[in-house]
Amino acid sequence: MPILLDPDHAPSLDDLLAATDTTGLEWRLSAAPGRTSPRIQGLGTLSSAGAAELSFLANPRYQNQLPGTQAGAVIVSPDVEQALAAEGATAPGFVRVVCKNPYLLYARVAQWFERARRPAAGAYVHPSAVVAADAVIGADVRIGPQCVVEAGARIGANSVLGPACVIGAGSVIGPDSLLHARVTLYAGVTVGARAVLHSGCVLGADGFGFAPDPAQGGRGAWGKIPQFGGVSVGDDVEIGANTTIDRGALEDTVIGNGVKLDNQIMVAHNVRIGAFTAVAACVGIAGSTTIGERCTIGGASMLSGHLTLGDDVHISGGTAITSNISRPGRYTGVYPYAEHGEWQRNAAVIQQLGQIRRRLRDLEKK
Amino acid sequence: MPILLDPDHAPSLDDLLAATDTTGLEWRLSAAPGRTSPRIQGLGTLSSAGAAELSFLANPRYQNQLPGTQAGAVIVSPDVEQALAAEGATAPGFVRVVCKNPYLLYARVAQWFERARRPAAGAYVHPSAVVAADAVIGADVRIGPQCVVEAGARIGANSVLGPACVIGAGSVIGPDSLLHARVTLYAGVTVGARAVLHSGCVLGADGFGFAPDPAQGGRGAWGKIPQFGGVSVGDDVEIGANTTIDRGALEDTVIGNGVKLDNQIMVAHNVRIGAFTAVAACVGIAGSTTIGERCTIGGASMLSGHLTLGDDVHISGGTAITSNISRPGRYTGVYPYAEHGEWQRNAAVIQQLGQIRRRLRDLEKK
Amino acid sequence: MPILLDPDHAPSLDDLLAATDTTGLEWRLSAAPGRTSPRIQGLGTLSSAGAAELSFLANPRYQNQLPGTQAGAVIVSPDVEQALAAEGATAPGFVRVVCKNPYLLYARVAQWFERARRPAAGAYVHPSAVVAADAVIGADVRIGPQCVVEAGARIGANSVLGPACVIGAGSVIGPDSLLHARVTLYAGVTVGARAVLHSGCVLGADGFGFAPDPAQGGRGAWGKIPQFGGVSVGDDVEIGANTTIDRGALEDTVIGNGVKLDNQIMVAHNVRIGAFTAVAACVGIAGSTTIGERCTIGGASMLSGHLTLGDDVHISGGTAITSNISRPGRYTGVYPYAEHGEWQRNAAVIQQLGQIRRRLRDLEKK
């Protein structure tokens, strides 16, 4: 499980690998003599896959599941293949696909299955969708029920809008993009090619900009700074469910090519995220902060505003970043948890650390 | 306030309690001689309830509001009833409903009111809803305006879909469930009986799975791992507004029976949450983590991926859990706040703790 | 950029300032002799604005961009104007608008542009919207496609509902409000005048209330406490994308006048937020907590339940507030981050702080 294709449409393992995009990967088959290539209906973990499924071993922690697997074929590294061979006469019952990068080969095979089960293309607009007369809809675009595409919006060829998406006036979706149900783009948002946008994400809401203005009701009142910038999203970007990306105040909020954003992330106005940076769920990035390329930001981290993080910076989950980081590396700031009573004892001392340092100095002077 | 029923439809206190499901609860009435049973139109706090309302005292911090309450009746514990009796001649003006568990009895009475004001049932599909011809709609299901129910989806008997819900292809909602406006289920999601799903929640978005793949645009680029698993939600589960539960990579993300999830929670792919565990708002649970039964997770906590928490584990709000927990108990990891200047002084020492320990050791050696 | 008006509709700088609401602000123009008032098509930063755009200098960190700006006019403080004058013969190429509060004057001008580009008003209900016959729709209200307005709801004059908003039964929107796409109000929610509500926000979902009730499935099971209160939002409130505000248990959750809430904030049941308080993104506020007036709550902070914060309290981002605060001031509780190895060394000592204090005491006694 999951079985992805019925037996009649399942390719043989050889045909499957021939159909898979293996750019940059080398692989070979290894099997007991006389073993024929199994038909592959789907993919599974080592513990759950059956004879018509392909599995993979990428994480050593699962190696002990290899001898008992029922999978018809398994992608393994050359090291694992060698170890299997060294075990001698008792060749494993599954065919091995040997590759230096089993996880990536698995990903490529999985991508083939994803395409194989995608519904047939062909231009389509559900009759309940409301599409402005001057919207520009590319070839073979599919627009689901209850969608709204406002004036002047452009949807690139082969893109799919799931149910109930809203594309604001003049906004742009590149070709080959997939918007799941209930994606919202305000006006003035541009998304590149091959985007994957998940349900509930909101691109282009106003940045949080207010100036103190007593004329708006008295002491402490706020006057709104209208947000005239847009959101500019590059190619090959994935944005998770209920993530929000605010429009810029005067210039755009910018998400670079190949950036991957998980669910429930908040990207404030005028943030810039460099190419290939990946951000895990529940992260908040405050206004005007710039993040470099190839960074990873762990879940539930928060970044203060107006910061600059260089390329190849890796932030551990749950860390608050409050100053610039120019040097590549891993940065962490998680308060360690403990049993509640122990935490109470230690936390009490936190409040006295300045005093403790002073007492230590006094002792050292004696 | 709130008044829930008009006077003509309000039951007497006796009738109300007779109609209430009191399974597992014992209770008795206590009133001044000759006092008749008041009609109960609604429920209120001790400070706000009027003569036609029932109140309750469950939290001792509100006991001082008891003498002044205008409520027609109050649910109290035997201890409170005894204290009231001991005050002698001046019997309180309200009828007492005496029960060892006032809060639970209140909950049951409130549930009766909730049912009483629910609109009449009866099968109904709003004409603006888009329901696939082969969707299986149970008896007396109500489907609100602008909903989308895709091919092969199944909605159990007596369930209600509020406005603008999207039920993906082949997904399943059990009987007697309530989906508020704008709930989104992707394809391949199963929800059990008696679910309550709140607006903006998203079940079944892709898990955040990517493999490094330079062929996708160069150094640092990511290749997508398609997410073929589903989401499996048990019976009696409530899921809060804008909470997201991702689908599994190959197997399902699993939410056990009776689990309660508050708003804006993120449950990543392949997480498993045991029965009756309650999770407060803004919690993030990273991929493949397993949480036991009867746990409580405080608000804004975060759990790293691939962890195992046993049964009856209680996490304080704001705590980052980064390792397995097998022993029941309460765990905390909140950095204590202080006035800003004091925080600055103490936080500066945090960065020197290793050094401070060393200096202490040096002194001890002398 | 952004150019907001075409040349034919762009006012001269004099006309623009005359049309701008400058209540409470004084300003004057200063320019090289003979310089005519430029036409202003839009607004820009110092680094991006062109000759037909107005810019501003509010933050000293951008002062070095002033000499090189291409802007046709710049709002500056009297100090900056004096410094420019002191530079002598080489008068700057741009017209200066001199004002003690450049940022606020900029805000007011930007508000003028925001109004100028707003589409013409006039009553309008898109034919795909579903509006209950007994809903009360004020004068010149505009209701977008796919909206749902339930029975008895009221929409105040001049308000705009973007696409796919859901207004629950009996809920109220005040006049001159703007709801962007996909705003959800449950039944029983009241919002005041001049509200700005962003996509995906949810007002009125059930508070997270459960009582232990073994009758619901065994040990550890929960019984639901129905939530009968509402949500009451004052005038001039802005609520960000995907923010959730739960309804009260018996009384209302209350958001005061002029409160500004950023994206992805969670406000639990029975919270009360005082006038003009501003809350940054990703904050969680637990149930029954009261926040005073004119507070600011930094991003990703969390507030425990049943607390009281007084007026003029300022919480730094990422801080967990776990006790009452009565004194105005700034409060912080962020664990400082470090390079990962350094963090590991220091975090290890955190777990021994109680012991370290004891050892220090022992040494001091000697």
From TrEMBL, chains A, B, C:
It comes from the Bacteria. The active site is at H269 (proton acceptor). Pathway: Bacterial outer membrane biogenesis; LPS lipid A biosynthesis. The keyword Lipid biosynthesis applies. It catalyses: a UDP-3-O-[(3R)-3-hydroxyacyl]-alpha-D-glucosamine + a (3R)-hydroxyacyl-[ACP] = a UDP-2-N,3-O-bis[(3R)-3-hydroxyacyl]-alpha-D-glucosamine + holo-[ACP] + H(+). GO terms for biological process: lipid A biosynthetic process. GO terms for cellular component: membrane. Keywords: Acyltransferase, Lipid A biosynthesis, Lipid biosynthesis, Lipid metabolism, Repeat, Transferase. Belongs to the transferase hexapeptide repeat family. LpxD subfamily. Homotrimer. This is UDP-3-O-acylglucosamine N-acyltransferase. It comes from Achromobacter aloeverae.
